[in-house]
Amino acid sequence: MIGLVTNGLPFQNRFLAEEEFYYLYDDVLHIRELHLHDLTKYDTLILSCRLDLTHLKRYQSHLITFLESGKRLVIFGEIVDNWLPTIDWEDSEVNFSWWVRDGGDLPMHEQNTAHPLFKYVTLRDMKWHYHGSFLPPVGAQSLLDIPDGRSLFYIDHVSFNGELVVTTLDPMFHIGLGFIDQSKPFLHGIAKWLREEE
C-alpha cells in the first residue's frame, strides 16, 4: 500500500486529477490530518513537494517511527530547515534556461546504475533543474550527482531501519502546473519502481 501525503494546494489537486498517475498511490493523506491515519497499513509513504514546513516538523516523530518500522519514505523537493535528521540540504541557484542556450547543459551524472530504478528512468527524465543538493550519509547510495559530488537523488538504508528515498526533483509540482515534460516519465518511472519493490 502506498500513501501520498499532500497539502491540498491547487497544483497538488490538479496533479491528483491526472488519471494516468492513479496507480502511483492507493490513498491520499492530507498532512494536517496525518495523525488520524493508521500509517502502519502502508508500505510506502510519498511526501509531495512543497509540503507545509510547520506540519512536517509537527509530524517528524510519526515519519521517523514509520521509517524505523522498516517502511519506505519517499521525499520530493527541498528538505529545508533540518525538518528530518540525517538530511544535509544545501540551496543552490536554479538554472531555468540552460536548455535554450546555444550549447547549454545542466551537468549531472548517474551513479550506481545497476539500481533497479534505472530500468524505468533515464538521465534525460531527471534533467530539468534543481533547487539544491544533498550530502548523503556515509553508506547511502546516490543515484544522481552534480559535478561537485553532491547528490540530487539518493537512497538511504543506513540511517533508519527502513528505506529513505530523497530527491530534490519536484515532478508533482510541474505536472500539476502543466510544464516540464520530463517530469511525467520521471514520475512514471518512480511509480513503476515502487510497485515493483512492494
Written overview of the protein:
The protein is α/β, with parallel strands linked by helices. 22% of the residues lie in helices and 21% in strands. It is built from 5 helices and 10 strands. The strands form 2 sheets. It has an 8-stranded mixed beta sheet, covered by helices on one side. Strands 5-7 form a two-stranded antiparallel sheet. Helix 1 (10-16) crosses helix 4 (171-177) and helix 4 (171-177) crosses helix 5 (183-196). The longest helix is centred in the last third of the chain and has 14 residues, at 183-196. The protein is globular and about 50 Å long. It starts with a strand and ends with a helix. 35% of the residues are buried. The mean pLDDT is 93.
